[in-house]
Design a protein that fits this description.
The protein is an alpha/beta fold. The protein has 18 helices and 21 strands. It has a seven-stranded mixed β-sheet. The chain starts with a strand and ends with a helix.
């Protein structure tokens, strides 16, 4: 049972590890450690656990804030599915989204991404019959990049002295992909700008347009969905609900409303955490899952001897772009409203993603560079049992943090009329995108609410309200400090900054953090 720090709660006398945050990386690390008999205390500043896997409820509806679809869990033997099964004791169930998981819409043209590598290739070739070789070469490169990925990340879990010896050899094959931008790689395969734009149609899944993003990140996302998309049965809150019992079975505890103020160090070693009310919890292992910027900038004392090193390291990375999400509640079932399961990616007919982003950043009256529409109530087969005669839609777009800077410091839900009016302009524009495709929905909307980068900052505590932690640029992949082990003994990192964006990346980060700590081959246990 998840407990609140602000209410009477029961704690163990001592814990083997304290984890800051309850995002996917933290939950995964905790579950792996729990299965090794470790008592783990997870501390979450928010009023609900789960990080970007949590849901919120309002006006009789429920919305998932971060999970819109997950790949590779359809195959029962895939690494991702095996990990999810391991940390949830097989209690986390998945619903397949069907043959088409993403539809890329550029102006008036629509391009379906269909599941199955051969089907994906055939469908794209039908759209671009003269580009068959380029499409085939592209798919081969996606697989090559992903094949090289394993050794790159396992290197992060190796003891430092071994990493110093063989790390370069392990990293080099992957860095041949990660050091190049997505656009650079695709441009080497084809000159067809429309094909390039279509192939980059999922860039919103990692937050950087093709001329800025690392091809390694792009390839990771593309392969992730080759087998199609799935959604957690019962909504993304089932992730915490199914993992928490595993943690608690080893006498672990999850505390919400529990804000950590500082990581306590002594003689170069992390020994505990100090809470916002100055109470302290001690353990030989401290894991931070709240992002490297938050960890090094906010939780490590400036008096710490490593503080200067951390400050220098943070200059080499930057936060990813922020976003806005319009949460919509509708009257009627998903079937009645004819809501699809597939996601829609809507782009201007300008054939350059980067130009579209630049134009919007300079003038917010320009077309949104990307509009993503997800239909969670259609994806979850249990939805209508839980919320009869209701449906939900999420619409996401790029919204820079700087645009909302003047309201920084104001309180959530009390930011004033000017803030609400500013939000409403964006909300209405996003609704029009929806109505263009689904005119039948114009009179079915019951309520809507737009979250902004300030909302994300309030709940997830990212400095710039970013969605994906650190930017996934080529430079990011060159930073060796983005690993579970830190210079402070006993202090470890987990979360999407350690691997890559998204639930899959955060899940894998929890795996390698636990591997680093336990020095065990968890693959054998996962596939036992």
């Amino acid at each position: 049972m998840i407990q609140s720090y602000k209410k009477p709660h029961q704690l163990e006398e001592q814990y083997d590890a304290v984890i800051i945050g309850t995002g996917m990386g933290s939950l995964t690390s905790a579950a792996f450690l729990a299965k090794e008999g470790k008592k783990v205390l997870l501390l979450e500043r928010h009023y609900t656990a789960g990080g970007f896997t949590h849901v919120f409820k309002r006006k009789g509806y429920e919305w998932d804030v971060g999970i819109h679809y997950i790949g590779e869990v359809q195959k029962e033997n895939s690494a991702l599915r095996k990990m999810f099964d391991y940390i949830s004791n097989g209690n986390l169930l998945w619903a397949d989204m069907g043959e088409v998981y993403d539809q890329i819409i550029i102006g008036d043209k629509k391009f379906n991404f269909v599941k199955g590598v051969d089907a994906f290739k055939d469908q794209l070739t039908q759209y671009f019959p003269k580009e068959e070789k380029a499409i085939e070469d592209y798919i081969n490169l996606v697989f090559e990049a992903n094949k090289a990925m394993g050794k790159f990340y396992i290197n992060k879990a190796l003891p430092k002295f071994i990493g110093n010896i063989i790390g370069g050899m392990l990293k080099k094959p992957y860095q041949e992909f990660s050091n190049r931008t997505t656009y650079e790689v695709l441009r080497s395969l084809t000159e067809n700008k429309e094909l390039i734009k279509v192939l980059c149609g999922q860039y919103g899944d990692y937050g950087l347009p093709p001329k800025q993003s690392s091809f390694a990140m792009h390839a990771s996302v593309v392969k992730h969905y080759f087998g199609g998309g799935s959604f957690p049965v019962g909504g993304s809150s089932q992730i915490v609900k199914t993992i928490a019992p595993v943690i608690e079975s080893a006498k672990g505890t999850i505390l919400i409303n529990a804000e950590v103020k500082e990581i306590i160090t002594k003689k170069g070693r992390a020994i505990g955490v100090k809470m916002s009310d100055y109470k302290c919890f001690y353990a030989p292992i401290i894991i931070s899952g709240v992002g490297v910027i938050n960890t090094f900038k906010k939780l490590i004392s400036k008096e710490n001897k490593f503080s200067k090193i951390f400050s220098e390291q943070l200059t080499k990375v930057k936060p990813s772009l922020a976003h806005g999400c319009l949460y919509i509640g509708l009257n009627g079932t998903p079937e009645e409203l004819k809501l699809p399961k597939k996601n829609l990616w809507i782009y201007p007919d300008d054939l350059d993603h980067d130009d579209c982003v630049d134009r919007f950043l300079k003038d917010h009256n320009e077309p949104f560079p990307v509009v993503y529409i997800s239909f969670p109530s259609s994806k979850d087969p249990s939805w209508s049992e839980r919320y009869p005669n209701k449906s939900t839609i999420d619409i996401i777009t790029l919204l820079p943090f700087e645009s909302f800077h003047q309201w920084e410091g104001s309180k959530w839900m009390k930011r004033g009329e000017s803030y609400e009016a500013f939000k409403e302009k964006f909300a209405q524009r996003l609704l029009e995108h929806l109505f263009e495709l689904f005119p039948n929905l114009r009179n079915q909307i019951d309520c809507y609410e737009l979250s902004t980068p300030l909302t994300t900052k309030h709940f997830v505590n990212y400095e710039k309200g970013e969605l994906y932690g650190l930017d996934h640029s080529p430079e990011r992949y060159q930073q060796s400090f983005l690993s579970p082990r830190t210079p402070i003994k006993g202090l470890y990192l987990t979360g999407q900054d350690i691997v890559t964006a998204g639930i899959g990346g955060a899940l894998f980060s929890g795996f390698i953090t636990a591997t680093t700590i336990e020095k065990k081959n968890f693959w054998k246990k996962i596939y036992a």
